[in-house]
Automatic annotation (TrEMBL):
<dbReference type="GO" id="GO:0004821">
    <property type="term" value="F:histidine-tRNA ligase activity"/>
</dbReference>
<comment type="similarity">
    <text>Belongs to the class-II aminoacyl-tRNA synthetase family.</text>
</comment>
<dbReference type="GO" id="GO:0005739">
    <property type="term" value="C:mitochondrion"/>
</dbReference>
<feature type="binding site">
    <location>
        <position position="185"/>
    </location>
    <ligand>
        <name>L-histidine</name>
    </ligand>
</feature>
<keyword id="KW-0436">Ligase</keyword>
<feature type="binding site">
    <location>
        <begin position="358"/>
        <end position="359"/>
    </location>
    <ligand>
        <name>L-histidine</name>
    </ligand>
</feature>
<keyword id="KW-0030">Aminoacyl-tRNA synthetase</keyword>
<dbReference type="Pfam" id="PF13393">
    <property type="entry name" value="tRNA-synt_His"/>
</dbReference>
<dbReference type="InterPro" id="IPR033656">
    <property type="entry name" value="HisRS_anticodon"/>
</dbReference>
<dbReference type="GO" id="GO:0003723">
    <property type="term" value="F:RNA binding"/>
</dbReference>
<feature type="compositionally biased region" description="Basic and acidic residues">
    <location>
        <begin position="60"/>
        <end position="80"/>
    </location>
</feature>
<dbReference type="InterPro" id="IPR004516">
    <property type="entry name" value="HisRS/HisZ"/>
</dbReference>
<dbReference type="InterPro" id="IPR015807">
    <property type="entry name" value="His-tRNA-ligase"/>
</dbReference>
<keyword id="KW-0648">Protein biosynthesis</keyword>
<feature type="domain" description="Aminoacyl-transfer RNA synthetases class-II family profile">
    <location>
        <begin position="89"/>
        <end position="373"/>
    </location>
</feature>
<dbReference type="GO" id="GO:0005829">
    <property type="term" value="C:cytosol"/>
</dbReference>
<dbReference type="InterPro" id="IPR006195">
    <property type="entry name" value="aa-tRNA-synth_II"/>
</dbReference>
């Protein structure tokens, strides 16, 4: 059957070619529609034989053009262009920016050490199980790593959970430690607001069984000391208590199992209108609207001891044991803050919630309240700096027990400063003031008065370095004195030491004070002493930026 069909197909193809060439015998023609009839026969026979008809040249060209356009739009047309950039949520820091950051780190570390802390370090990644279940709704922001030989790993989200793991693993029951290191979060970055995916945290924690509120208040004192020393402008440390917050929820009719989800919603009040937070409570978390409205009556409140006195008269609230315990702690905390002289920087704020699940007692958060400086930017929106929280922390008495095989708890309290947010404020202030500052600490620059004195310069540099004097020289054999002096002025180097053949023969050097342009001859044996005198008198020359309002 198929052989007969194939034969008929070949005959029809022969007739079609003759018709197409207008050479078919007249006897084969039966009218002007003969060509179309033959085409129909061909298509019918091909269909019976299972042969797909070939597309027309016009259709093939159209499909080809469309495919090329799709590839062009998707970037697949030719080799893909590589865009050289840092990953989203990260950035590079230039020498000028690093000078600011190093100055900030130095002040923070000095404060931590002043309060008796030691330092530790932990791996930048942890077992995924170590971090799981510690951060509540923020767990979705953890960076998980690819499987590495059977171990499921994640980049650390903060420094607190690794610290708790460290305490449990090494059986440590008391320590006062600080830790400065990078952490990672899959957050939506806002670079101008100091919100990155990779950033430094500066943590100070006190672990151990101590009398109530003494370690907690010292943590607040440390925050006030650091932020005051950085001179970033006005700030406020908000304080609250997780037990008091839970007591408020219970008094308002929130079921126990909804405490943490509702707490997470309240935590958004610093950046989200109440209407949206209420909608989340009711529609997403299933809270009774009446309970939500009662919560609003409390979380609007802030103040000091007068607010605490008012809450202590609230029978609905004092009927909750947790609320009473929380208020007693807050009362003692405010009393100690007054003794430290920091009451004017502290605000008892009931809307403060801190979304992380591991907090169990006092919580606090420092916020920048000064005028918002503007970063140089191409758009007004990108240029504004609104950093929000610049430090936060609280008490987490149950976290270490989560890692201990017997559930043994180690009471802990601590604070964490967000260096990137502080840096955003300080960088903006520097740009605003157009302040110039040095990126190096070089104190002396060695200059040759004539050519061919490389070895003499090297000997002078060796003498100065051995005396712990920060020194530089040119890396060219033959230099121009004018160019060298200009370099000293541009980089803020306070002293230049000049040596030539006549100075070598006389056993002297020329010492030039760059700020006054005063130049004098000094004996080689007195050189170090004279340099130190000049450096001591040049106290107006700063090797690090001073950030002032």
């Amino acid at each position: 059957m198929s052989a007969a069909l194939a034969g008929t197909l070949r005959l029809c193809q022969y007739h079609w070619r003759l018709l197409h060439q207008h050479t078919v015998p007249t006897a084969c023609l039966s009218g002007s529609g003969q060509i179309s009839e033959e085409v129909k026969k061909l298509l019918s026979l091909k269909s019976q034989l299972g042969i797909e008809p070939k597309p027309s040249k016009a259709k093939v060209k159209g499909d080809s053009d469309k495919a090329k356009e799709n590839k062009k739009q998707s970037g697949e047309d030719g080799p893909k262009k590589f865009v050289l950039k840092t990953p989203k949520g990260t950035r590079d820091f230039a020498p000028e920016q690093m000078a600011i950051r190093e100055g900030v780190f130095n002040k923070i570390i000095a404060c931590f050490k002043r309060h008796g802390a030691v330092t530790i370090d932990t791996p930048v990644f942890e077992l995924k199980e170590t971090l799981t279940g510690k951060y509540g709704e923020d767990s979705k922001l953890i960076y998980d790593l690819a499987d590495q030989g059977g171990e499921l790993l994640s980049l650390r989200y903060d420094l607190t959970v690794p610290f708790a793991r460290y305490l449990a693993m090494h059986k440590i029951t008391n320590i006062k430690r600080y830790h400065i290191a990078k952490v990672y979060r899959r957050d939506n970055p806002a670079m101008n607001r100091g919100r990155f995916r990779e950033f430094y945290q500066c943590d100070f924690d006190i672990a151990g069984q101590y009398d109530p509120m003494l370690p907690d208040t010292e943590c607040i004192k440390i925050v006030v000391e650091i932020l005051s020393s950085l001179d970033i402008g006005d700030f406020l440390v908000k304080v609250n208590h997780r037990k008091l917050l839970d007591g408020v929820f219970a008094a308002c009719g929130v079921p126990d199992h909804k405490f943490r989800p509702i707490c997470s919603a309240v935590d958004k009040l610093d950046k989200t209108p109440w209407a949206e937070v209420r909608k989340e409570m009711v529609e997403e978390k299933g809270l009774d609207p009446v309970a939500a409205d009662k919560i609003w009556e409390y979380v609007q409140l802030s103040g000091g001891t007068e607010l605490l006195d008012k809450l202590l008269q609230d029978e609905n609230l004092t009927s909750q044991k947790k609320a009473v315990e929380g208020m007693e702690d807050i009362k003692l905390l405010l009393q100690y803050c007054e003794a430290y002289g920091i009451t004017d920087r502290v605000s008892f704020t009931l809307s403060l919630a801190r979304g992380l699940d591991y907090y169990t007692g006092v919580i606090y958060e420092a916020v920048f309240t000064g005028a918002q400086p503007a970063l140089a930017s191409s758009s007004e929106e990108e240029g504004s700096v609104g950093v929000g929280s610049i430090a936060g922390g609280g008490r987490y008495d149950g976290l270490v027990g989560m890692f201990d095989s017997k559930g043994r708890k180690v009471p802990c309290v601590g604070i964490s400063l967000g260096i990137e947010r502080l840096f955003s404020i300080m960088e903006a202030k520097v740009q605003e003031s157009e302040q110039k500052f040095r990126t190096t600490e070089t104190q002396v620059y060695v200059i040759a008065a004539q050519k061919g004195m490389v070895e003499e310069r090297l000997k002078l540099c060796r003498t100065l370095w051995d005396a712990d004097i920060k020194t530089e020289q040119s890396y060219k054999k033959n230099t121009k004195m004018l160019t060298e002096f200009q370099y000293c002025e541009q980089t803020g180097i306070p002293v230049a030491i000049i040596i030539g053949q006549s100075e070598i023969e006389a056993g002297i050097v020329k010492l030039k004070v760059m700020s006054s342009r005063e130049e004098r001859e000094v004996k080689r044996c007195d050189m170090l002493e004279e340099i130190r005198k000049v450096l001591a008198s040049e106290d107006n020359v700063k090797s690090k930026p001073s950030i002032s309002s």
